[in-house]
Amino acid sequence: MLTMAAACGGPTNMANAPASGSETAPQGGSASSSPSVPPPGKPQFDPPRGAVRVPDNRVDGTALPKTFPKEVYSDNGGTVLVVRAEEGGCGHALGEAVEQTAQKVVVDLSETKAQTGQMCTMDLRHPVISVALGAPLGQRTVVLKQSPPR
């Protein structure tokens, strides 16, 4: 019982823990000259500087589970969507614009499957992921949907 309590007493989200010998900048700070680019292999949890939040009335997340985040930003002149996704354990969030019309952009969110035989944590993370668009978002609605892990 004591071992379980000690194991549970550590950080709750190891995805934000620095690797051995590395340092992280404080929230809003800068560890390098390019703060919006995460270090290789590290998930990004904040939208890039300069990204503009898409108003909630232009984000349709009704197809997502109730607890799934429904946060979308536009970046790079509206040609890139930055979407708050969900991943856990050994999975990594994925996103793809599967439909782009004059009225809407449909973004399919998923995550990679964990490899069999691999030990995975039971944490839940909400990184932001980038989804390229064929044309600037403009006034189109963003429709979020979720597919099973791939």
UniProtKB/TrEMBL annotation:
<feature type="compositionally biased region" description="Pro residues">
    <location>
        <begin position="36"/>
        <end position="46"/>
    </location>
</feature>
<feature type="region of interest" description="Disordered">
    <location>
        <begin position="1"/>
        <end position="70"/>
    </location>
</feature>
<feature type="compositionally biased region" description="Low complexity">
    <location>
        <begin position="26"/>
        <end position="35"/>
    </location>
</feature>
<protein>
    <submittedName>
        <fullName>Uncharacterized protein</fullName>
    </submittedName>
</protein>
<feature type="compositionally biased region" description="Polar residues">
    <location>
        <begin position="13"/>
        <end position="25"/>
    </location>
</feature>
